[in-house]
Amino acid sequence: LLSADGDGQIKCWGMAEHLVNSWECTQSSSVDGDPIIALSWLHNGVKLALHSGSTNFGEKFSRVKFSPSLTLFGGKPMEGWLAVTVSGLVTVSLLKPNGTLLTASESLCRLRGRVALADIAFTGGGNIVVAATDGSSSSPVQFYKVCCRIDTELLPSLFMRCTTDPVRRDKYPAVTHLKFLTRENSEQ
């Protein structure tokens, strides 16, 4: 279980002695003073599809081809999480095989700005896509590809109704929610 707070603290929780009602913090990372607005586990490459029309239990589930977000040598998926902060910082925390936590951060773009809403999705090819906006209808919803080295690349974006006239600016509604329709295989 992952949790994040307004102070930039991210905690990974595990069941103590496999008890559902007893949890303990197993790992933590922080982006001090920078509230987390989007948080997701890195995709491990396992995706099961449920086929509800099938009567045979063995045919109800199938594996879908999907690549892990990050891999070790030999293709073994890396475990960890990715977070986006209100100041436009992307932070990736990886659980190394020896149990230690490796964390790296990078700005979504060259000029960091306020991010009010963000969401994280994964492509079938193992890429990570972040959508971000400041919530204003005069600002774009921007999409970024996050690479293994925590490089980000600006992708084609959505521009809502835009006006340069300050008198008419309040006539357009604000962007209040931002969500990918599907968080996996989002390139389709």
UniProtKB/TrEMBL annotation:
Q: Which UniProt keywords apply?
A: Activator, Nucleus, Transcription, Transcription regulation
**Matching InterPro entries, A to Z?**
Mediator_Med16, Mediator_Med16_N
Q: Name one Pfam family in it.
A: Med16_N
Q: Which residues form the Mediator complex subunit Med16 N-terminal domain?
A: 27-187
What subcellular locations does the record give? Nucleus
GO CC field: nucleus
- Entry's family note: Belongs to the Mediator complex subunit 16 family.
- Subunit details: Component of the Mediator complex.
Protein function: Component of the Mediator complex, a coactivator involved in the regulated transcription of nearly all RNA polymerase II-dependent genes. Mediator functions as a bridge to convey information from gene-specific regulatory proteins to the basal RNA polymerase II transcription machinery. Mediator is recruited to promoters by direct interactions with regulatory proteins and serves as a scaffold for the assembly of a functional preinitiation complex with RNA polymerase II and the general transcription factors.
Name of the protein: Mediator of RNA polymerase II transcription subunit 16
Give me the gene this protein comes from. Answer: MED16
